[in-house]
Amino acid sequence: MDTERHPSSRNTVAILSRGDAAARSNATPQNSRFVRVFEALAGVGIDARPAIYDESFTEAVRDQLLGVDGVLVWVDPIHQGKTRADLDAMLREVATRGPLVSAHPDVILKMGVKEVLYQTRHLGWGTDTHRYDSAAAFRAEFPSRLRASGPRVLKQNRGNGGQGVWKVEALPNADGIVRVLHAQRGSLPEEMPLEDLIARCEPYFGWGGCIIDQAYQARLPDGMIRCYMSAAKVAGFGHQLIKALIPPPPEGPDAPEAQPGPRIMHGPGAPAFQALRRSMEDEWVPQMMQALDIDETSLPVIWDADFLYGPRDAAGSDTFVLCEINASSCFAIPDEAPAAIARTLKQRLLSTRKVRTG
């Protein structure tokens, strides 16, 4: 493949996602789950093509990415036992050789990991949050915090799909015994010695470097609000009645009552979420960028912040508690988001071209 980028009035972009060799051979914009993104990019004059990735054909993907102006990445931190370690190394190399990469792996490590909950705990979206940097610190500090503070939620630093997220509560009149519930779908509550839970979580330090510990939010049954962002602007919302960390009914985790509700998508102007929108655009995102040392042009072209309802304030209004930021693979997205992605990417590619041409 010719990997030299030739001057053109149209920018070229690769949309990168995981798949096998057959998926790579058969991929087209029309049969992609990102078809609406492809259409929005074409609408602003950007030529986009799918780039299917697997570790077994990294070199072919690298050659493809070096031949485009930009790369949009949709790859989960963990997928069927595979991590992003090799992919992130390749994306860093590609970025140093010219193409714009979003989200860049170094930006993900700042904002798309659970540690962001600790680094930004002082913002309006924060709550009682702690970080354990080692198994020894976790073993020494967590038991007393659990006894003093009520139910907690433990989160491995990197993960998706509820992997490595646990609700933990001490059982009354049962010293050293805890009830735990994993956030992965189909999980059942377990009772075990706290020491066993600590041992179960220790491998998280090897993969993610730390464990984050947050206060459990009692309004979890009211649902989760996903605030979709394109760079620093809201691109839409999704509200879902989630079931993660909520014990299943007596019929079990496969019962209809145990399944999460649909995520109801809304545009950025949805009246119910304007207070959250103002907080995100005017306060929290600028404050996050300052706290994490991220400039606006480095923010992902699409990312989301997941919020739970916090305690109501003195006026009876809702508050919001950040429980996660997704920057590695933010999908599905609201109908309005592809156009926002296209606008943001076009602006960045134009700015990059102006810098290169002087």
Describe the model.
The protein is α+β, with helices and mostly antiparallel strands and about 350 residues long. Helix content is about 30%, strand content about 25%. It is built from eleven helices and 17 strands. It has helices at about 20-25, 35-45, 60-65, 85-95, 105-110, 115-120, 135-150, 195-200, 205-210, 275-290, 335-355; strands at about 10-20, 45-55, 70-75, 80, 80-85, 100, 130, 150-155, 165-170, 175-180, 190-195, 210-215, 225-230, 235-240, 265, 305-310, 320-325. A six-stranded antiparallel β-sheet has the order 7-12-8-9-10-11. Strands 15-14-13-16-17 form a five-stranded antiparallel β-sheet. Strands 2-1-3-6 form a four-stranded parallel β-sheet, sandwiched between helices. It starts with 10 loop residues before the first strand and ends with a helix.
Can you count the helices? 11
Structural class: alpha+beta
Integer-rounded radius of gyration: 21 Å
Intertermini distance: 29 Å
The shape is globular
Low-confidence segments, ≥5 residues, pLDDT <50? 1-7
Which features would summarize this protein structure in a list?
six-stranded antiparallel β-sheet, single chain, 11 helices
Could you give a short description of this structure?
The chain has helices spanning 21-26, 35-43, 58-65, 85-96, 105-111, 115-119, 135-149, 194-201, 204-208, 274-292, 337-357, and strands at residues 11-18, 46-53, 70-74, 78-79, 82-83, 100-102, 129-132, 152-156, 165-170, 177-182, 190-193, 211-215, 224-230, 233-240, 264-266, 303-310, 319-326. With 358 residues, the chain is an alpha+beta fold.
